[in-house]
Amino acid sequence: MTTQSDPLKARAEALRLHGLLANWGEFADKPGLLESIIAWEEQERRARSLARRTAEARLPRFKPLADFDWSWPRSCDRGAVTRLMSADFVAAPANVVLVGPGGTGKTAIAANLANQALVGGHTVRFANAAAMLSELAAIDSDSGLRRRLGRYRRPHLLVIDELGYMTFTNRQTDLLFAVVASRYQRAATIVTTNLGFRDWPRVMPGSSCAAALVDRLVHGAEIVAIDGDSWRGRHLDRARPPDGD
Predict the structure, then answer these.
(1) CB contact burial 192-211 (16+ within 10 A = b; e otherwise)
(2) Where are the beta strands (DSSP E) in 83-213?
(3) Distance (Å, rounded) from C-alpha 80 to C-alpha 45?
(4) What is the model's pTM?
(5) Which of 91, 155, 174, 201 is most buried when burial is the number of CB atoms within 10 A of its CB?
(6) Digit-coded pLDDT (tens) for 189-202
(7) What span, in angstroms and rounded, lies between the C-alpha atoms of 139 and 79?
(8) Helix, strand, coil: what percent of the chain each, to 5?
(9) Strand stretches in 45-183, DSSP E
């Protein structure tokens, strides 16, 4: 029987279960056992793949989106975030930019989107913008830099978190552009930022590529604007003693 007419055998071949395939005839009268063996192997490999990709992704600890307090931001397109949770934008690929003040849930949303991409079988890398660029800028050799840039170029989804909280040197800005340009229209990128696009030159003083960087990020991107006060600030206010205490 050919593989085309035997879907079960095709699955065994996809898994490269050569020992089982070599003795396929021994199970001719036991299709239920074959189905179970192959299903067990598929399930185990999916679990191991997810565990490996999750470890490599380096996601921060995050609250599931089901527990997200949508009443806290003054404005946030919940519908857009819900659509993005399908992770279709990763396969497209398309970029996502989450813009808003600090403490309004951008990182939590980005982490949830990244986790959905992992569950969907994609490779992911989650990086703090300042840490990523400081790491890259510290590499002296061209070959070392190319290898390290590959870590950020290869994943199906790259999350660049907290862009805009520190000023970048020209070298760091050039490296950020190199990362984004290498992924342009070939892999998805999520950026979280506290700055509107017109304000990006403030943290990239003297750089000639800030406009080109924005162009590549926003082309065909889903831009989700979030407005509100800091969630962390609210809890700090609650922790302060009343005046006079």
Answers:
(1) bbbbebeebeebbeebebbe
(2) 96-99, 124-128, 157-163, 188-193
(3) 32
(4) 0.84
(5) 155
(6) 999 999 999 999 88
(7) 42
(8) 55, 10, 35
(9) 75-76, 96-99, 124-128, 157-163
